[in-house]
Amino acid sequence: MYAPTQTMTRRTTLKALGITLGAAALAYPHLGNTSSPGKVITVWKTPSCGCCKDWVSHLRDAGFQVVTNDVSDTAPVRQKLGLPAKFGSCHTARAGGYVLEGHVPAQDVKRLLREKPDAIGLAVPGMPAGSPGMEMQGDMLGARDAFDVVLVNADGSSRIFQSYPAKAGKKSRATS
Ligand SMILES: [Cu+2]
Fold this sequence. Notes:
With 176 residues, the chain is α/β, with parallel strands linked by helices. The protein is 35% helix and 22% strand. The longest helix is centred in the N-terminal third of the chain and has 24 residues, at 4-27. The site of copper (II) ion has 7 residues, from helix 3.
């Protein structure tokens, strides 16, 4: 008939996965202690993406367990996870039932998992210079473009979750 067949399949697959994981947790309750589910982040990125690897390192440094998946295109994953394409960046991830898109700072992921808002997840659209994994080097060391982390709602709307102001780099600071 109309399009929903695919959507149904996706939902069913995700649901089935949820049931499997739930059953595993019941069968092996001690697993919950060794790896708190909220501390695990699953990342989908393309194999050649350097800033994606740097973001993964940033998350690991902050204490997250990160599982990475290399894919040829992250767009289908983003779509499957329900994040509108307009929020798209170079990598997409999942943590505690939320979607994380782009160079989201670890501290905002922690706040998201602590506050548990009713939302799809967090996104840093594009790839702002100076965001985690997009650190500037050389004369521009430490420089940052202003950027916002947005909370994306189920209806596709969003609001600012956290704003990061612009910062001057080494060179700009050194000039007098
Ligand atoms: Cu990037």
